[in-house]
Amino acid sequence: MASLRFVFLFLLISFSASAQKDYKLWLQYNAVSNSALALEYKNNLKGIVVFGNSETIKIAQKELQTGFQDMLGTIPEIKSEIKGENNLIIGSQSNLNVEIKNELKSDFDKISTEGFIIKSFSFKSKKQIIITGKNDVAVLYGVFNFLRILQTNKSVKNLNIADSPKTNIRILNHWDNLDRTVERGYAGFSLWNWQKLPDFIDQRYLDYARANASIGINGTVLTNVNANALILTPQYLEKVEALANVFRPYGIKVYLTARFSAPIEIGNLKTADPKDTQVINWWKNKAAEIYKRIPDFGGFLVKANSEGQPGPQNYGRDHVDGANMLADAVAPFGGVIMWRAFVYSEHDANDRAKQAYAEFQPYDGKFKENVIVQVKNGAIDFQPREPFHPLFGAMPKTPLMMEFQITQEYLGFSTHLVFLPKLFQEVLESDTYQQGKGSTVAKVIDGTLYQNKLTGIAGVANIGNDLNWTGHPFAQANWYGFGRLAWNPYLDSETIADEWLKSTFSNDENFIKPVKNMMIESREAVVNYMTPLGLHHIMDTGHHYGPGPWVSNLSRPEWNPTYYHKADKNGIGFDRSKTGTNATAQYAPEVERLFDNLETCPEQDLLWFHHVSWDYKLKNGQTLWNGLALKYQEGVNQVNEMQNVWKKTEKYVDSVRFHEVEMLLEIQYKEAKWWRDACLLYFQQFSGKELPTGVEKPTQTLDYFKSLKFPFAPGNG
Ligand code: BDP
């Protein structure tokens, strides 16, 4: 009995230690196992000298101490002045002594206010390393980057890094409701415990801020775009203020979603018309009230006249009227309005993919200076693959910010391993041709294409109160990768995967190589087993869990999967070329030609832009039907291969995370087969053709797949 109890206790202890690993995200700070490298680190880090004593600097110092203790087993001596050599000096420009300031003058010229310098240099002929920037938050960014050098086992000799973020607003959008449910959230409930705030500060708020600061995220929208006006009442603003106070030292600003009808709902006004003086004043007063509590409040994110949300059009006004009215309210305090371009209407008979461009493009140049238009990466809705949104590059006089979805609403929830930076990179690298060749989406977003001052990237968060934050251990990589790309939209997804794996699991190349490869492949796998060759939006409706290509009975036509695939006896695909809806004309001529012409349209986007016959010949010589079926099978095979890769990693990974991922991959494999079988059986009704050799026969009937119902699928409000 006693020994059983001992085993149980042991299991409990080892479980919680491993569970903590999950919780620690990419900040594991594993002991450096390469002894030569560990020695190099110790030799170069004999002491720490700290300039400044703000909260932020204290956090930076503590982070270094934690990092060194865990990675090197020792903490360098904390010194009050620079004595001897091989010290690590941290502090912002204004806190440094004059000699160092002069020494680094040209380095400071290379960075922006948020940029940092990590440099080996000589001070009074003694070798030192310095981490500095123009303010303390920049120093904190530098500290996290320095620790990443150690985490990824790189040398600290002869460092010379000057790095600045390429975008200003690097922000998470939480679709969190006040009742703590999370729209499209698959990692538990909301982190924000409104009931216990403002007095109870959950340690998670600090850990959340720390994780975000470590990747350079500098803003968070706390509430759902489908907004509740109550968040703007004093009762809640007091709670928001408490969170803002926690996040501030980490350089994170708080933003809120503004429900356009708030003046009616909580302000007792009869209207929310943006031209009404009382409404204008109500928002001005509201902004003043918020800024009194939170002087660095970021501003509002607004979803208006979209999917039933109220907006200026309810009063015969337009998006410009609405955005500019709010912009005026926050402008005196330096706030911004992030106005979403995610609009489409069931009353508009036009192709849904065309509606946002049609509505917003003519507004170019009409928004106030502190408005930035937030555009989803594609014209429909966060699909496994979409061509880039035609608005990118098409509004030269308007700052546009990117909206990515980190939470996997249309990509298997938090059960499927899909490395999203690969998707993000594909979008950012896309060439809009709006200013000739090389006018990439990244250049629109970082403001270099049109010299915009206001720039930003938003990611719909995949974070909840699950022990491991994101539901799937590998979904942490999507949070991480989002942050890294928001800092530098030109980063390569392989570099990101490499960094993340090393900081999260192990530096062992035998682990890194196959697992990195698995991550990179995972994006194409999900496209293959869900929506190959340009198919899109064929998920089951409402919850978007699993396949539902047969759904055709919803009141709004553009919510039906049949609207998107248009399968019939003649073929499949949405004709958006000149012979169809002419959505291709919304792109620059070079891109328009590319997509419009069947010969040149990339096959990965084929059925997005064209309706082709089942016998259409693909580039590999297969008929469309066979090619489509083989793609579905390939997706399933890829997941199976991911399982094989993972099985071999057991010795590099703690048992909790190993088994979690193993079980999740098994679910993914099952669901990939479900997708393949359900979609092929459904499309086969139209093609009337046999499955080609190499594609496994479905073991269930189409009726069986159609009968599956998921009334409690998560994330669906
Ligand atoms: C859709 C989601 C819905 C969101 C909407 C949005 O299904 O829950 O409210 O996007 O972005 O994809 O506003």
UniProtKB/TrEMBL annotation:
Q: Where is the Glycosyl hydrolase family 67 C-terminal domain?
A: 470-695
Q: Which residues form the signal peptide?
A: 1-19
Gene Ontology MF terms in the entry:
alpha-glucuronidase activity; xylan alpha-1,2-glucuronosidase activity
Provide the top EC class. Answer: hydrolase
EC assignment: the record states: 3.2.1.131
Keywords in alphabetical order, please: Carbohydrate metabolism, Glycosidase, Hydrolase, Polysaccharide degradation, Signal, Xylan degradation
Q: Per the record, GO CC terms?
A: extracellular region
Biological process, per Gene Ontology: glucuronoxylan catabolic process
Instruction: Tell me if GTP-binding is a UniProt keyword of this record.
Output: no
| A Pfam cross-reference name | Glyco_hydro_67M
Catalysed reaction equations from the record? Hydrolysis of (1->2)-alpha-D-(4-O-methyl)glucuronosyl links in the main chain of hardwood xylans
The superkingdom listed in its UniProt entry is Bacteria
The UniProt record lists the Glycosyl hydrolase family 67 catalytic domain at 150-469
Query: What InterPro entries does this protein map onto?
Result: A-glucoronidase_C_sf, GH, Glyco_hydro_67_aGlcAse, Glyco_hydro_67_aGlcAse_N, Glyco_hydro_67_C, Glyco_hydro_67_cat, Hex-like_dom2
Where along the chain is the active site annotated?
307 (proton donor), 381 (proton acceptor), 409 (proton acceptor)
Taking every annotated instance into account, which residue ranges of this chain make up the domain Alpha glucuronidase N-terminal?
25-146
Its quaternary organisation is: Homodimer.
Of which family is this protein a member?
A: Belongs to the glycosyl hydrolase 67 family.
* Descriptive protein name: Xylan alpha-1,2-glucuronidase
- From which source organism is this entry? Flavobacterium potami
